[in-house]
Structures are given as structure tokens and as C-alpha cells.
């Protein structure tokens, strides 16, 4: 009876534990898609991270003078990206990489210290394996569906900004405040789920990021 009670206590923990290889199939498909269009002779910029990157369908069209690969994979966290640094970034020998993670981390109640520690390891590995590559951390964005977590997002953004400032070759880009209307998130820049952006949302991102891309 005691063993059964212990098992029941741990069931919720087992239920939320994520398989470390849960993105293997999706990452393989991303590789196949990008390998078919990538020109290794040209300088490459990689955009990677969670669904806000994955769903930026006209990313290359917005920056026609650059070769850009989109290796975003929806639902990912910093810890997921850490498992696929070669497949999603380093194998394409980029001169610059833009990383958008942290959005799902906060929503999944990952501790901020854990998020920052993971991001710091990612930066270290990338810089060791590809010296001279510029790295840009894009701040987690505000959204309608996760507005109640805005305090945690702001704290994470401050921590990521400080991490970038103390790390050579790393920049931090704030998309949080450009997406606000005074103290509230803009309502007309999202699709129906209140989380993912429509064209107006990506217009804001384009304006914020364009100088860093070009």
C-alpha cells in the first residue's frame, strides 16, 4: 500500500517530464528543408528558437540581401535548443545567429535561474565551436494569452540583457516594449490564440531587428 501511495505521488512528476529526444523528428525535417536551399559558399544567418521563429514564414523575403535559414522548432525551450546546437546552428557555419527562447520556459514554470544557466551554457558552447560568430538573444515577447506572467518575463529579460552585456560577441534585442501600447500588450498583432503573431506582429519585429540583420 505504501509503495502504491509513493507511485501516485510521483505520477504528476512523470507526466510532465519531457523526453529529451522529443524533437528529433522535427529537427530532422528542418535539416532536410534547409540543406536543400543552403548555399555553403555564401555568408549565412540563422534564426532559431521556438514557434515565434518557426512561424515567421517570410523571414527570408524580408531580408533579401542576406542568406537566412529558419531553424525554429515550435514548443521548444532553451534546454531543447541545447540538445541540437550542431543540427540547428553550427552545421550551417553562420556568421550570426538569432536565438528566441524563454517564452515557453516561463510558461512551463522553469526557474529563471535555470533558464539563464542553460542559456549561458549555450553561449559558451557556440563561442567555443565557432569563434567570431555573432550571437543575438531576442527577448521573450509579451502576449495576450501569457500576459498574467508578464512579471516573470520582464525579470527574465533583464537577466538575459545582463548576460549579453557581460559576454563578448553577444547582443540582446528587446521586442517586449515595442509590442506594448503604453502598459498593455497590443491586441491586434496576434492570431486567434493570443500567443502567436500575425503580420503586424512580425512588422514590429522586422523594424526592431533590421539593423542587426543588415
From TrEMBL:
Name of one Pfam family that matches: Lipase_GDSL_2
Coiled coil: none
Name used for this protein in its record: GDSL-type esterase/lipase family protein
Record domain SGNH hydrolase-type esterase: where: 56-204
Signal peptide, first to last residue: 1-19
Transmembrane annotation, as ranges: none
This protein's UniProt keywords: Signal
Gene3D superfamilies with a match to the protein in the record: SGNH hydrolase
Statement: the UniProt record of this protein carries the keyword Signal: yes
PANTHER family according to UniProt: SGNH HYDROLASE-TYPE ESTERASE DOMAIN-CONTAINING PROTEIN (PTHR30383:SF5), THIOESTERASE 1/PROTEASE 1/LYSOPHOSPHOLIPASE L1 (PTHR30383)
Source species: Flagellimonas marina
Amino acid at each position: 500500500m505504501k509503495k502504491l501511495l509513493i507511485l501516485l505521488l510521483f505520477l504528476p512528476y512523470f507526466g510532465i517530464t519531457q523526453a529529451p529526444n522529443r524533437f528529433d523528428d522535427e529537427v530532422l525535417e528542418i535539416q532536410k528543408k534547409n540543406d536543400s536551399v543552403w548555399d555553403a559558399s555564401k555568408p549565412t544567418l540563422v534564426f532559431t528558437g521556438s514557434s515565434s521563429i518557426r512561424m515567421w514564414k517570410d523571414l527570408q523575403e524580408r531580408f533579401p540581401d542576406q542568406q537566412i535559414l529558419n531553424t525554429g522548432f515550435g514548443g521548444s525551450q532553451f534546454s531543447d535548443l541545447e540538445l541540437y546546437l550542431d543540427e540547428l546552428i553550427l552545421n550551417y557555419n553562420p556568421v550570426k545567429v538569432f536565438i528566441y527562447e524563454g517564452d515557453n520556459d516561463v510558461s512551463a514554470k522553469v526557474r529563471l535561474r535555470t533558464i539563464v544557466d542553460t542559456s549561458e551554457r549555450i553561449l559558451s558552447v557556440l563561442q567555443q565551436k565557432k569563434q567570431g560568430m555573432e550571437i543575438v538573444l531576442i527577448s521573450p515577447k509579451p502576449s495576450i494569452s501569457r500576459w498574467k506572467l508578464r512579471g516573470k518575463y520582464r525579470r527574465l529579460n533583464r537577466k538575459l540583457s545582463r548576460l549579453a552585456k557581460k559576454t563578448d560577441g553577444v547582443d540582446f534585442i528587446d521586442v517586449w516594449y515595442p509590442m506594448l501600447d503604453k502598459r498593455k500588450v497590443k491586441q491586434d498583432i496576434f492570431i486567434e490564440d493570443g500567443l502567436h503573431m500575425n503580420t503586424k506582429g512580425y512588422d514590429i519585429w522586422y523594424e526592431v531587428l533590421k539593423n542587426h540583420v543588415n
